[in-house]
Structures
1.
Amino acid sequence: MADDFRPDPDALLAAIQKVEDSKTRGRLKVFLGMAAGVGKTYAMLDAARLRKSEGIDVVVGYVESHRRAETEALLNGLEVIPRRKLEYRGTFLEEMDTDAVLARKPQLVLVDELAHTNAPGSRQAKRYLDVIELLEAGIDVWTTVNVQHFESRADTVQQITGVRVQETLPDSVLDLANEIELIDLSPDDLRKRLTEGKVYTSERIETAANNFFRVGNLTALREMALRLTAERVDHQLQDYMAIKQIAGPWKSGERLMVAVSPSPFSEKLIRWTRRMAYNLEASWLAVYVETGEVTAPPAKDQLLHNLALARSLGAEVITVTGHEVSGALLRLAYQRNVTQIVMGKPQHSPLQTLLRGGSLVDRMIRASGDIDVYVVTGDETHSTPKRQFLLPQARLHSSLRDYLLAAGIVTLVTTFDLFLVSSLPWLGYQAVGLTELLAVLLIAIYIGRGPALVAAMISAISWNFLFIEPRYTFIISQVQDVILFLLYFIIAIVAGNLTARLRIQEQLARYTAERTLALYTLAHETATAVNMDDVLRTAVDQIHRIFQVDVAVLLLSGGKLSDDAHLSSTIQLDDKERSVARWVFEHGKPAGRFTDTLPLASAQFFPLLTPNRTVGVIGIRYRRNERLSPDDAALLETFVNQIALVIERELLDEAAQQSAMMRESERLYTTLLNSISHELRTPIASIKGAASGLSTSQSDGDRTALVQDIHSAADRLNRLVENLLDMSRLESGRLQIKRDWCDIGEIIGVAVKNFDSCAADHGIDIHIQPDLPLIQVDFVLIEQVLVNLLENACRYSLPGKPIRVSAQLEAHRVSVTVEDRGPGIPSDKLDAIFDKFYRVPGTPTGGTGLGLSISRGLVEAHGGTLTAENGEQGGARFIVQLPLNGAPPPVKEAAL
Amino acid sequence: MTDDGLQVLVIDDEVQIRRFLRISLAGGGYQTHEAETGEVGLLKAAQLRPDMIILDMGLPDMDGLDVLRRLREWTKTPIIILSVRDRDQDKVTALDAGADDYLTKPFSTDELMARIRVALRHAAPSEENQIFKTEDLQVDLTRRLVTVKGEPVKLTPTEYALLRLLIQHAGKVLTHRQILREVWGREYESETHYLRVYFAQLRQKIESDPTRPSIILTESGIGYRLRLD
């Protein structure tokens, strides 16, 4: 039973998230009023003075005193950040200097009039965006706002007061507020203040009192403000209960969906849905169905505006493609577990509705099953914009040229028919009609619907005039000819229409397929690309090609955004654009062209966001300076997200590789220290000991022995250092191979020369196959390999047992063998001996554990192999195989 | 061999190396002057006119190679280069630029003294020794006669030219480039494989054990040297 009271983990997480967020973010306090003049600014300043007296660092970011004396008096003694002056079309406008406030970094800043729209040229389009920026910088903000400015209330306010509210702000801003203080005043008191001139200057008092400030209006606005505050309190209570795990009215589990169209009426639907979602505590989706019947530019802007509004009100905005709206909506609704769908009342005439096979609403209601459908009244003053066919990239907009072409074709066919009829008199006018019909259909397929309709019209008339008896009149004598003519006309129009629609659908399908292919290509290429450069090149290429835009990619490098665009970019950025990119990177939000932030920039910038961080910024410069369609914008977003994920994956890969390398080098470092410290200290100890012995010893014999000790210890030390140097050169890849034609016998001779004393002890037998070809190797490095192998052999070979060095020609390679007659290598260690610092247990000291490892590295650098095996007579055998790379050019006798 | 008061200038920034050289050279009867930097070295070389210069390639103020080139602009004094093993190319460049010999650090006193002697001998204008002898090999340069253990050996003109060149510079290292230029001519400077082929042939004819040459020594990565007893 206890389960029934278990709080929803999501709600709990969200509530805790809110608390966590507010710890790093500054706190927002909103002084909310029902109308101008209630005393919000006064209350804010008054409270601020109190805070200042408590020692809090308070500054005024922007306060409009409206020349009210009492407000101005309160401003005295508070630090005011000077405003930024902007010139716009000859007038100077003043705005809050957000950068100055950020630089000043007070504990608390006062910012009046949250709903204010900034002057063009400001970084942020709206003041509340400045406020969010301040909050994100950890500065507390106090602000004032009137209830009519909230998006979700704008409609209601307009209905009540008849005034269209121009400056609005999303309701979600209020969700950011940690505290809301309602500044309440009775309507009568407010009107009294108005008449006393405390709200407006005298000339405006009368108009204001008679219009906006009517008692009825004020009462309604007051109710709205009180209700808004009450809703907030209610939410705070629920958050509190969620955190404290008090069982209570948990979220309803409802999900709303609103269908958005390119109509201004959609705005109202969106606001209505937001209010309902808020009251139901439900999440909501705003959906636009792209049918291919995209609207003309003004309506397109309206659509984008509607979608942006929905987004700003907290909706999840989704664009789906489908020819049939109701089907697409319902599919999505079932997919996303929507419980309620909000739609507008149909505005088509009954005839249109009949033609369309029932209204959208009827179809929805019939097919919606257990989903509730709300039908909301539209505003009759707005009519749906005239629809016309238009598809991106598809040539659906017929030009005058197309019409003329269509007319031309009809004329041509008609002339041809005239010729036919005159030369073949038995040919009836019916056949002529069919040739004309064919022309109309072809025009519909290849030119477009409009020209086809025109062609249908012209051809019908000319057919009547030129061919139907009596000819050369518009009169039709026979009844069946009248019917024939009418049928021709209808068939031409319907067929033309159908053909054109088929063509549109085909183009839509091709368009969708192209997009799907593009996404598939991107996903595929990015999954298979070897490195980040390839990934980016593919992605940029795709974006460039599909959207016809220029692209610049800036990546995260060394913790900050790189200044230089990535190589794959198709444009370079100037300083101004770079600063926009930096802003986007720091804030993780899009900015630039067609956004609210820095809209005057020439390009639009998107952050490359991953769940953990921003990995870069992508800049898009639109060639025609036109917004993308919602469908394209969504696709672009998908691209950007995909790119971000791939970059993150690459960066993580790099980081993982690096940490693996770190671990490996850590391990090596430890081994190195253990091994080397012993190997280094032993000869140093001998040198030090011998040196002090020298300073005290008197006997000549002792002194000679001590000097000999110093010599051999120094040699041993030198060998170790050289081994270490060789190793580090090999490992760092700095090793340069200077290939030269060499005589392998000569190299063996030089190597063996270093082992005179060993040769004396054991004997070194050298067997070189006569007439070995020269091989292209680095003489010094191969000598080094042989020296290491010989050193090994000398160390392990038993006294008196010879070491054998041989060289012979094998297929395509020369093989050199160094064989000792020592104890051999345990067969399970034949490969391990080539590992760094590996020593077969129980072997004599003196080696570094590096020689074999270095030798193998050097041989492999030559494209050869170094392997070990045990000889038939016991003892280890090392085999170096070096490839033969052709033959040297012939030698010449010197011309003496 | 050790003429009294022969002057050696040591240009090296390492104080220990200079001390060890001073002591060793004093033991060999030479008088030592020291310079810590290339600039001072150039100055002292001009003032003191030493009989021999020992020059370290790694100097703090300038490249040892530049010091060498500036010295060679006006003096033929024998110069021995000190260098570390991993700079083979530097040694070749220095030898080609006119250094007489090189020593790889670390090196022993014996080695140093032997090299100094060779360098000084080549610098001193001595009467040309017409008969060269080492181990079983005897070469009569006037009669162009080569014998091993008293038996005449037939050399091709090129082989003989190589041997004669080495004998003329006996004990001194000659770079591949120098040998190729002398024997084949300037345009053959980089045909190192000529040397591999001809020296292998030459060794077959004059060395007692061609797999372990003891007369013509290979200087790995640099060139060849004729051993001097």
2.
Amino acid sequence: MPSNSEYTIFICEGTGCVSGKSHEIRLALEQKIAEQGLSNVKIDFTGCHGFCEQGPIAIIEPDDIFYTRLTVEDVDEIVQSHFIEGKPVERLFFKDPVSGKAIPLYKDINFYRKQQRIILRNCGHINPEKIEDYIEREGYNALKTVLGKMTPSQVIEEIKKSGLRGRGGAGFPTGMKWEFCQKEQSDIKYMICNADEGDPGAFMDRSIMEADPHTVIEGMTIAAYAIGANEGYIYIRAEYPLAVKRLRIALQQAEDMGFLGDNVLGSDFSFIIHVNEGAGAFVCGEETALMASIEGKRGMPRPRPPFPAQSGLWGKPTTINNVKTLATVPVIINKGSEWYAKIGTEKSKGTAVFALTGKIANSGLVEVPMGMTLREIIYDIGGGLIGGRDFKAVQNGGPSGGCLPASALDLPVDYERLAAAGAIMGSGGMIVVDSQTCMVDLAKYFLSFTQEESCGKCVMCREGTLQMLKILEDITEGKGKEDDIDLLLELSKAIQAGSLCALGGTAPNPVLTTIRYFRDEYEAHIREKRCPALVCKNLITFYILPDKCQGCGICKRGCPVDAISGDKRMIHIIDQNKCIKCGNCLDVCPERFSAVTKVSGEKIEVPEELIAVGSWQNSESEEKL
Amino acid sequence: MATTVINVLNQYSRDRRNLIPILQKVQEKEKYLSSESISEISIYLGISENDVYSVASFYSQFRFIKPGEHTVKVCLGTACHVRGGARVLETVERELKIKPGQTTADGKYSLETVACIGACALAPTMVLDNEVQRSMTPQKVVDLLKSKNKAENDAK
């Protein structure tokens, strides 16, 4: 029976889904629907839903059906079955990684159900390139309220009462930051949005700008009104081309409709926003470095005071806020500071957005009230670890943050409690790791990042991180010495004390927390020359198990350096001198044989020359004979 | 060549604040910053070539040698790291026989690494000519480069 229902299908066109060809899927849908002459189906697109791993994603309204992992080949079936016959396509439903059940409706998916989306409220629900969609969901109402009924001081008071703190990581109270700048007497002031989301492992700012750019513009305009700025800059990473494009479209639309420009909404307040693209320097996320970069200089931090509120961009009073902070502002104005202050914990109000990634079943963006435990976030929302494996650690806050062990799982997440445990809220990166991740290697990874990104101004940051990196390299290569751990701790203290900005000040955190919670792993590397996670290349060996090898030759063909010798129905052998430990043999060995193994700190006996499959006897069995 | 740079310069006022946007635009058009371009920019903005270099060399986005026809960027963000990003990079290095920052002898491929492209849920990722490739494995790298080469040979 043909369906007469009206449908709207929203295809996600965030960076993740676009990489899965969601744009092509939309075009194919448009073509198919035109061919079939269906007038009851509308096609639109949204920005990022935050559930990128399941992408490409589509939502069909009004039923609220949620399709995942779409391909162009699925288009015909969706049109025929769902839109013509009225039967949703079951095989495209989301499959819960824990229960294995197919879940048709968006609202029933655990990943979304336990979230409270304030900052991400519009993400995935509106077309980011249509200002009308934003306006339909209370967009620019807050700006109207502020310009029509509130003085700048009243706005600041409202934000102060809400308890909003900077979402860039440090958690400084936003209302106070605005007040400092407002009180400065100056003919020119600047409002900057820090969208230089440089932390590896964090992508919420990108998603917000791709999915809901107007909320950032509205929040920024309100902030500018409060501090008395007429000119603003959005400093955004050049690595985010789609976000840049959507921001530019949104700025033009806002200007056309009078939300930006001269005499905003007929008031005597004028405000314009420029977009500056970053050029790939992590340190530019630091506010004084960011301003130097806008001024066309090397992005190096300078001492504070003077703080930007007194002397910022070109020496003028300046306020810098993070994307998420600004995206929260319109909601606070619309719903009131009292409503906002009820969410969260005593000192950390509102919600926090985390980028939940790594070895987690449901990778994606998660927004929860402050105070939720790590366990709830990782298990209830994240669905636990991939393949139900055991949790080992969670790394919070990127290169400035720390690694927390299983004993910290019941820790309620807020600024203070994370800091007390040695991690930080930071940018909100939350990377879950299992037993296959080596904590020493992870610490080395972060340190090599900060070492590379150190601008070089402060000696301790420039040289100290290099020395720490060299020590960590030695440890992971089996050249670690007994007093290396103490030396790392000592260097960490010196770097924290001797660095101007937070890059150096927090660079030792990943090392400090891994030593604090996973000291035994450091000791295994140093004393036993063993990597328990089987990651550190110099400490691991690959073997072909002679009793399991069936002589199929797949590993030999896949070895990029010809390190495997063997012949048909002969037991294959790895030449350890040639092996580069790429792990390809382990990947390609058929599961039914599972003849390749990786070990650390042990030796497995293998034949010295080629022998036939089945003829292997190790020294023990020979002795028995 | 010089006309491209001059066309870019004419879109901006002679103000130092435009230095980084100019460098970005010139690189977008010319794929890299040649010493001639740097010289043009320095004259236009009235700042020394030294100064232009000091800014350009600070930011990892800028290149001073001509890149290959195609660019492979391997993401080394944290999520990619814990899901095997290093193996992806090693495979690309092996297949193309170059290290990050280098270009193949035939001028076809350049290899770069990037700290994070913000597609962490798709880890490990790499970017081939602005297209994000998700959930990469060593085998997928080999296949992808093969099919890219095949498509080009067929086109010829």
